[in-house]
Amino acid sequence: xxxxxxxxxxxxxxxxxxxxxxxxxxxxxxxxxxxxxxxxxxxxxxxxxxxxxxxxxxxxxxxxxxxxxxxxxxxxxxxxxxxxxxxxxxxxxxxxxxxxxxxxxxxxxxxxx
Length: 113
Fold this sequence. Notes:
The protein is an alpha+beta fold. It has a five-stranded mixed β-barrel with strand order 1-2-3-5-4. A hairpin with a 2-residue loop joins strand 2 and strand 3. The radius of gyration is 16 Å and the shape is globular. The two termini are 27 Å apart. The relative contact order is 0.21.
């Protein structure tokens, strides 16, 4: 019985720690160079599904009053779904003609807690 209680408490603590380590979309979009190539966990709501082909997709999530595009090797989630995803931040430095927005390359996805 005591072991079961400890397992439940450990699970709750781990879930709490995971939520606390999420990176805000605002932090990434405000300073994309600082996150370039880093693995992050992000929570947001799916607001657009731009492209889907052969099981891959490009969609947009919003959170923290910002939005960011997500490239996935899986079909896009439904519009309005609140998700938590693990991703690598893709970033290209601006050139003289264009400032490139950051992009999340999804590595895992699950419903947001």
